[in-house]
């Protein structure tokens, strides 16, 4: 039996459970896992016999906990090519720089975040001290690299040029498979 407790912010518990428990029930049905939500302590206990179902349920719960809508997080169950990566900004930047760094990643009126999502075909959530990315593994790796460039102080134009190059590389690699 695989068992894991995942901490979930109080403001994300409702999103995980869903209207009349529909999201929680859907995760349990699609993964074969049991989710026990403790809203009092802010934890979700994931229990599962099947290792693959366990990992998929863990990823969906983690994605919702890090700010993704249930609709986007549930894509992790429907497409085995998708992965979740979470960057803990608190291990990289000081508390005093956190707001500025998150602002650089989001950009003016959300433009930079949208560009990363559109150019690299990923979904990004910035919640608390974390940046979470959902997409295909190579795209997530490229998005992580772009985000780290922003954290390290690279100009937005430099990051955009990097992403254009990565997008061309990823597109040419996908054409090689045809």
What does this entry look like structurally?
- Helix 2 (22-31) runs antiparallel to helix 3 (51-65), helix 3 runs antiparallel to helix 4 and helix 7 runs antiparallel to helix 8 (156-176).
- The model has no long low-confidence stretch (mean pLDDT 93).
- 53% of the residues lie in helices and 20% in strands.
- The protein is built from eight helices and six strands; from the N terminus they run E-H-H-E-E-H-H-E-H-H-E-E-H-H.
- By secondary structure, the chain is an alpha+beta fold.
- It folds into two domains: 2-78, K Homology domain, type 1 (Ribosomal Protein S8, Chain: A, domain 1, 2-Layer Sandwich), CATH 3.30.1370; 82-176, K Homology domain, type 1 (Ribosomal Protein S8, Chain: A, domain 1, 2-Layer Sandwich).
- The protein has a three-stranded antiparallel β-sheet with strand order 1-3-2, with helices on one face. Strands 4-6-5 form a three-stranded antiparallel β-sheet.
- Strand 2 (34-38) and strand 3 (43-48) form a beta hairpin.
- The protein has helices at residues 13-17, 22-31, 51-65, 70-78, 98-106, 111-120, 137-151, 156-176, and strands spanning 2-7, 34-38, 43-48, 82-88, 123-127, 130-136.
- The longest helix is centred in the last third of the chain and has 21 residues, at 156-176.
């Amino acid at each position: 039996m695989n068992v894991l407790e995942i901490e979930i912010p109080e403001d994300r518990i409702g999103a995980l459970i869903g209207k009349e428990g529909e999201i929680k029930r859907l995760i349990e049905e699609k993964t074969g896992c049991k989710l026990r939500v403790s809203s009092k302590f802010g934890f979700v206990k994931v229990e599962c016999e099947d290792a693959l179902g366990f990992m998929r349920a863990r990823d969906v719960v983690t994605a919702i906990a890090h700010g993704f809508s249930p609709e986007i997080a549930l894509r992790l169950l429907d497409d085995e090519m998708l992965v979740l990566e979470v960057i803990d900004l608190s291990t990289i930047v000081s508390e005093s720089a956190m707001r500025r760094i998150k602002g650089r990643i989001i950009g003016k009126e959300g433009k930079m975040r949208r560009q990363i999502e559109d150019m690299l075909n990923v979904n990004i959530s910035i919640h608390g001290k974390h940046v979470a990315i959902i997409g295909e593994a190579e795209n997530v790796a490229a998005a992580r690299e772009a985000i780290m460039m922003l954290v390290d102080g690279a100009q937005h134009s430099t990051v955009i040029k990097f992403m254009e190059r990565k997008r061309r590389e990823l597109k040419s690699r996908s054409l090689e498979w045809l």
